[in-house]
Design goal:
6-stranded antiparallel β-sheet; disordered N terminus; single chain; mainly beta
Length: 276
């Protein structure tokens, strides 16, 4: 996937129309784990192959948690594809159906497992609507995927003659990391996004050049330094870029504070990241 500067390619939004109709009687039940719809969705997910994300979107009901989950992973892949410093190696997992659960194993020894269960499909279209996840697979605690996704996709703010939009955000139940995908569209002037890796930052708000750097402000008002950034932070004029920002030990429901520089001026864009 080419999402480099000037490519003109748009990131996947949760409202993307799906074109494939799968023949399946809708509803919920243990037998859905081995259904055509669920198999198509999770085989594509387990592949870790960005070229297969459209298969996830096609198997999911538009606007549903399952569709938003797929869109988020497609957005993340776009940010990674545009970053020359990020490896592009695909490391697929192994998927199998165990009872009412889809189990995906990762790692050289396949000892890192995730479980997906409680599937629900749309009664009219047969597409996947929702599911739960657990780590490791088979763990007693199952978390609905809807509870891991921001409900505020599409929030947009304007800075200079540019716009910054929240494409998607997710905080997996099994991870301390919150992943946020932003789309930045520049206007007539180039932009510098002050998103520095945490290894270069000593404290919230302190960047190596003395300027501000990206932070995440929680609902309680605490600020967390950016853990990592993927994507291009130098934005040419009339260009669209996609960024993946990762923060640790924070949840949904806060605000990204992204300092943006242009022509010697620095303005902090505040992008709300709504809860589920």
């Amino acid at each position: 996937m080419d999402a480099g500067p000037g490519s003109g390619r748009r990131a996947v939004r949760p409202a993307i129309a799906v074109l494939l109709t799968l023949a399946l009687v809708g509803g919920c039940g243990d037998d859905l784990a081995s259904s055509e719809t669920v198999t198509a969705y999770f085989e594509a997910y387990a592949s870790n192959d960005p070229d297969r994300h459209p298969e996830m979107l096609e198997a999911a009901q538009e606007g549903s948690p399952a569709h938003r989950f797929a869109a988020h992973h497609a957005n993340v892949a776009m940010a990674r594809a545009a970053d020359p410093d990020r490896p592009t190696e695909v490391r697929p997992g192994t998927m199998e159906v165990v009872g009412d659960m889809v189990r995906i194993a990762y790692g050289p020894d396949r000892d890192q497992t995730r479980g997906h269960a409680d599937f629900a499909v749309d009664e009219q279209t047969g597409r996947l609507r929702s599911f739960s996840e657990s780590l490791p697979a088979g763990a007693e605690r199952r978390v609905p995927v809807a509870d891991t996704l921001s409900g505020g996709d599409g929030a947009t703010v304007s800075v200079f003659d540019a716009t910054v939009s929240l494409l998607s955000a997710r905080k997996p139940a099994w991870s301390p990391q919150l992943g946020i995908v932003l789309e930045v569209r520049s206007g007539d002037q180039p932009l510098r996004l002050n998103a520095e890796d945490r290894s270069l930052v000593t404290a919230p708000g302190d960047a190596p050049d003395g300027g501000a750097t990206t932070t995440y402000r929680t609902a309680d008002g605490d600020a967390q330094v950016l853990h990592s950034v993927t994507g291009m932070t130098e934005v040419a004029a009339d260009t669209t870029v996609v960024l993946l920002l990762v923060f640790e030990d924070v949840g949904l429901g806060g605000t990204v504070v992204l300092p943006i520089g242009s022509q010697g001026e620095l303005i902090e864009a505040e992008i709300p990241v709504a809860g589920p």
